[in-house]
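SAMPLE LOG
Freezer: B-3
Tube label: C17
Construct: single chain, 217 aa
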Amino acid sequence: MQIRAVIFDYGMVLSHPQDPTALNNLLTITGLDRSTFDSHYWTHRHAYDMGKLNGRTYWQQFGSDAAVELTATDIERLIENDVLMWCTINEPMLAWAKALAESGMRIGILSNMGEETLSYMRQEFAWLGDFHHHTWSCELGIAKPDPAIYLYTCEKLGIPPAEALFLDDKLENIEGARQVGLNAIQFQNIQQLQSELSSTKLLNGFPMPGSKDTANV
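STRUCTURE (predicted):
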């Protein structure tokens, strides 16, 4: 069956891994080593992405769990650096998305996202307008890998799951997508994505990521 839509995760697909300067700022503010920080950072992240917590309540919970006393100023700085940590864009992937759209493919974003990062992106990233649809978990109150969020995205794009390709860096989100009938590839890097697209032939006739066709888009 022909693919008529490509759905992109944002973090670690359209964006690069965590910005090291922002990450170091978070470690400095909390006074924690990387391993301890990460263990607490992810504990309540799903609730944050679902909109059950906002930036202030998320970091308050973080401080309570980690036994770190955080002032109101600390929390403001944590929110700011947390946002910036996820906002370094993977330009070749973004160029590929634009090339797909110009070739007639529908493109969408499906991302687990807290409200502060989303607000920053809407203010700073005009390229969001190049996508035909965005699904942000914090606005729906559901998050990947809940089946409902994939089906909602396909419905909004007007494409059945079997005619869409979903890209995400996390295996559990890929497995959730496949359970509802989406074609799905776990993204690691552009070279790996090129290889998998070539072997599956899912996007025959469309530009490939990192190709010369996308360089000047």
